[in-house]
Structure formats: C-alpha cells, structure tokens
C-alpha cells in the first residue's frame, strides 16, 4: 500500500475508516497520537514532548474535511469510552477532554487507597485523615499507672524466687560421687556455712531455685527448695525417725485417702505426722499421741516450721490437720470411744499394749500398720494377738530395702605390653614349652592393648565412652519390719 505524500489531503471515506479503526483504542492519550501510531509514526515517550515541527502539520487538519474527521474521531472515542471498562473511561471521559498522565500527578499513598475504595468508605477515610489526633486525658493515665505500680510493688520478688523465712537446700559435690546436703532457713543477716566457705543468705534471697552460687572459698552450691522427704531426713530429730522408704510403704499398705481420720501412736520427731497430714488432705484429720514431753515438743516444732516455710515459698497453705496429744495411748480408751478411725499406724516400742485400746474405734476392714525395728518384736506382737484373741488378721510382714547404684563413665588407659622377649647370644635358648608360654602370654597382652586402643578410637570417633554400673559403696543400713493387720468381724458361735 503506497503512502500518500506528506501534506496531501485524504478523502473523507479514508477519514471515516480511520475513526472506525481507532475507536477501540481508547487508551491513546490524544487522537493526534492515535493517528500517528496508525500511520506508523514514532510513539511518544514518557516525559518527552512530541516533536511536531519536524513532521509538519497534521494530515487531517490540512485537508478540507479535517474538521469533520476530527469531530467524528472525538465522537467515536467518547462513545467507546462510555461502554468500555473503568480503565478505558479514565483515559477519555465523557466531556472528550483527555486526562493527565499518571506520571504527571503526584498522589499520596492514602489518596491512592482512597480512590480504590467505594465512595462511602473513601469519605470516612478522608474525614479520619483530616481530623487532628486527640491526646488521651492525663487523669486516665494516672488511674491506669497507679494499679500497675501497685502490682509491680506487690510482686517485686520474682515469682518462685527464694524469700526470707523459707527453707533452702544447698548441695555440694564431694569425692567418690557423693553429695553433701545442707538445710537452712533464710534470713537477711545470716550466712550459710559449708566446707568450701560461707555464703550470705542475702545472696540467696531473690534468686530462683536451681541456680548455682559460689561461696567465699569458690565452692559451687546448687540451691533449691527441699522436698518433704529431704526435710524429714535433715530436720532436727530426737528419736529415730521412720524413714521415707518405710513411710511410703505404710501409706500404700493402709490405703489412706483424703478426708480420712488416722491415728498415730508415737509422734517422735514428726516425720510420720507430716506424711500423714499430706495424705489425708485439708478435710482429713490426724491424731498423734506421744508419751514423752521432749518428743512431743520437737514433733510440734518440726511440723510448724514446715508449714510456715511452705506458705512462704509456695504461696499456699499447708493443711493444719494434725492434733498432737501428750498422753499414753494405753490410757486413752475414753478418748477413742468418740472417734471412728479409718486407719491406725503404730510406731512404738510395745504396740501390743495399744491394740486392745484402738481396735474398737477402727472400722471393720480397716488396716493397722505396725512399724517394728526387729523380727523378735514381730513375734511378740503376733503372740499377743493370738493369746488375747484380738480380731486382727496378719496379712503381710515385709522388710523394705533400697539398694543404691553408681553408674559412671569408664576410664580407659592405654596399656602396652611390657614383656619383651630378647634374644641374647650368651644365654641358652629356653625350652620349647617355655617359649610357647612366653609367646602366648605376650600375644594376650598385645591383644588386650589393641582392644583398649580400639575402644579409645571408637570413643573418640563416636563421641561416646563405655560405662561402669555397680552398687554404691555406701548403702543404707537402716531396715525395719512392717506388719499389716486387718480388722475382721469374728464369727458368732
């Protein structure tokens, strides 16, 4: 198709055809540019003015029907923009005037978002943006800050940290894989003395349990709260206590539940009373009889110290459910008539003297556990039950023993054969059998050395070493006999 010479006019049908072709291209900036693109002219670049001077006057304007073609082009563009999408309408509005380019305007991010929103939401966003920010009143800040400050002051010690007045347990590692445990009650002016130096209590107060602190001599101490078992073993004692291993068996044997009423004879140092207090709970009751005044006072003191330390350290109240009675149980028959016992624990020298007094108050099928130091006492107890025809059936007699073990990494030494067979010219050659014995012995030592070296190489490669497990050198020598008696109803003759 031959191009018309520059400056020549085109016939009207050609202009109408051009308007029809360019009508869908509503995205053009101006009709001028659309005609130039259709004719293969250069495209206009962003930010650069169109060079019309080099091109000469527009062909449509040079012709006689230029005005009619221009108006037809504008009408076609306006009609196509009204029926096209919103993107097309943004380029050619209904008035026919082209809008400014996007790069010709500078919009803020808020304005761009507002234009994408519906009219109602856009108006609300504009009102919020135009409104000045309001500062909160100072009175509310003061009211909020006051409770917050009070809360900070109330929990100034970290939750779970040591407080003055509670018990702390310090562990010191010693030789032969043993541990020394020290129990103390924290006070701001006191110090904790240990074989490796002293540690002021003020350095412990405020710290969390499980931390390691150093004494004045550089010894490391592991600080934590004691368990009830550790407190019973470390608390001041007068008579020999019932050990926790035996108390656990007694609690299992008697099947004590929360809310039960339990009788204990022989308060001693208060060890059994503490475990029974925890077993029966706040709704239960423990009656502890003791014949000696010093044992009675010591049991009450240990029980009171544990309760106060528990309330400080755990922010909870230990149940006050133990009644210490200074009286001989064999003379308390009148007291037993007013109570019904779910279980009985006898920890005394002659328990057979207490059985005739306590058995009427024990419920049918209830268990009486007797804690005895030797087997001869068990024999005397059973003989008294048989001779007095007491309604008790001996179900079990057990001895609770614990065996401690030590499990440690093995230390492998590099062993080398020290036996060398040297041939000497001036010494007679040994007989064949002796030579074989020496050779076999040397080969065995060499094999052992190679085995140890292979173990060391394997440990270095796999980052693991063999372990040695054996019973500990120090074992608990204390032992006791637990007798389980169950009350039954005798048959009517």
Key features?
about 500 residues; alpha/beta; Vcp-like ATPase, Chain A, domain 2; Rossmann fold; 7-stranded mixed sheet; 4-stranded antiparallel sheet; 16 helices; 15 strands; about 40% helix
Report what the structure shows.
β3 and β4 (197-200) form a beta hairpin. Helix content is 38%, strand content 18%. It has a seven-stranded mixed sheet, sandwiched between helices. Strands 2-1-6-5 form a four-stranded antiparallel sheet. A two-stranded antiparallel ribbon has the order 3-4. The protein has 16 helices and 15 strands. The chain has 493 residues and is of the alpha/beta class.
Just name the CATH architecture of the domain at 237-399: 3-Layer(aba) Sandwich
Overall geometry comes to elongated
Number of β-strand runs: 15
Structural class: alpha/beta
The Rg value, from CA coordinates, equals 50 Å
Using the coordinates shown, work out and report the CATH topology of the domain at 237-399: Rossmann fold
Instruction: Indicate the percent of residues in helices.
Output: 25-40%
Q: Please, how many helices?
A: 16
The CATH homology group name of the domain at 237-399: Vaccinia Virus protein VP39
Strands ordered across the widest β-sheet = 9-8-7-10-11-15-12
Beta-strand content bin:
15-25%
Mean pLDDT: 75
* Major sheet description: 7 strands, mixed
Distance between the termini: 138 Å
- Taking pLDDT < 50 over at least 5 consecutive residues as the criterion, the unreliable ranges are 7-31, 33-64, 85-92, 136-145, 147-156, 415-439
What is the CATH top level name of the domain at 237-399? Alpha Beta
Domain TR61B FKBP-like: 164-218
GO molecular function: tRNA (adenine(58)-N1)-methyltransferase activity
Biased composition (Basic residues): 36-47
Biased composition (Low complexity): 75-91
């Amino acid at each position: 198709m031959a191009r018309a010479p520059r400056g020549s006019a085109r016939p009207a049908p050609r202009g109408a055809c051009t308007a029809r072709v360019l009508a869908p291209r509503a995205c053009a900036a101006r009709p001028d540019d659309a005609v130039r693109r259709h004719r293969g002219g250069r495209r206009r670049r962003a930010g650069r003015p169109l060079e019309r001077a080099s091109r000469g006057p527009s062909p449509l304007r040079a012709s006689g029907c230029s005005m009619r073609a221009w108006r037809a082009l504008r009408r076609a563009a306006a009609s196509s923009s009204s029926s096209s999408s919103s993107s097309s309408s943004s380029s050619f509005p209904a008035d026919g005037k082209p809008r400014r380019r996007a790069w010709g305007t500078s919009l803020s991010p808020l304005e761009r978002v507002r234009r994408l929103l519906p009219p109602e939401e856009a108006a609300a966003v504009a009102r919020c943006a135009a409104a000045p920010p309001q500062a909160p009143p100072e009175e509310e800040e003061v009211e909020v800050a006051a409770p917050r400050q009070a809360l900070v002051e109330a929990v100034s010690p970290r939750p779970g940290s040591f407080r003055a007045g509670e018990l702390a347990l310090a562990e010191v590692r010693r030789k032969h894989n043993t541990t020394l445990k020290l129990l103390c009650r924290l006070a701001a002016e006191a110090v904790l003395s240990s074989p490796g130096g002293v540690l002021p209590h003020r350095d412990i107060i405020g710290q969390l349990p499980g931390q390691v602190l150093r004494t004045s001599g550089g010894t490391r101490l592991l600080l934590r709260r004691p368990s009830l078992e550790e407190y019973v073993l470390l608390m001041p004692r007068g008579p020999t206590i019932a050990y926790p291993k035996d108390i656990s068996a007694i609690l299992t044997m008697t099947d004590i539940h929360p809310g039960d009423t339990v009788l204990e004879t022989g308060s001693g140092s208060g060890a059994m009373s503490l475990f029974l207090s925890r077993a029966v709970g706040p709704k239960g009751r423990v009656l502890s009889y003791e014949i000696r005044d010093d044992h009675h006072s010591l049991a009450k003191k240990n029980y009171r110290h544990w309760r106060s330390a528990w309330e400080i350290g755990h922010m909870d109240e230990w149940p006050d459910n133990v009644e210490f009675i200074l009286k001989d149980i064999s003379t308390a028959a009148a007291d037993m008539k007013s109570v019904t016992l779910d279980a009985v624990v006898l920890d005394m020298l002659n328990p057979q003297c207490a059985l005739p007094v306590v058995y009427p108050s024990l419920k049918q099928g209830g268990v009486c556990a007797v804690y005895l130091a030797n087997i001869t006492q068990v024999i005397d107890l059973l003989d008294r039950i048989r001779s007095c025809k007491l309604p008790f059936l001996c179900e079990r007699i057990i001895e609770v023993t614990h065996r401690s073990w030590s499990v440690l990494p093995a230390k492998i030494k590099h062993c080398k054969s020290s036996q060398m067979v040297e041939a000497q010219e001036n010494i007679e050659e040994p007989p064949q059998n002796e030579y074989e014995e020496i050779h076999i012995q040397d080969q065995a030592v060499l094999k052992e050395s190679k085995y140890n070296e292979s173990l060391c190489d394997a440990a270095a490669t796999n980052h693991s070493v063999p372990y040695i497990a054996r019973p500990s050198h120090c074992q608990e020598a204390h032992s006791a006999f637990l007798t389980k008696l169950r009350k039954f109803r005798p048959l009517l003759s």
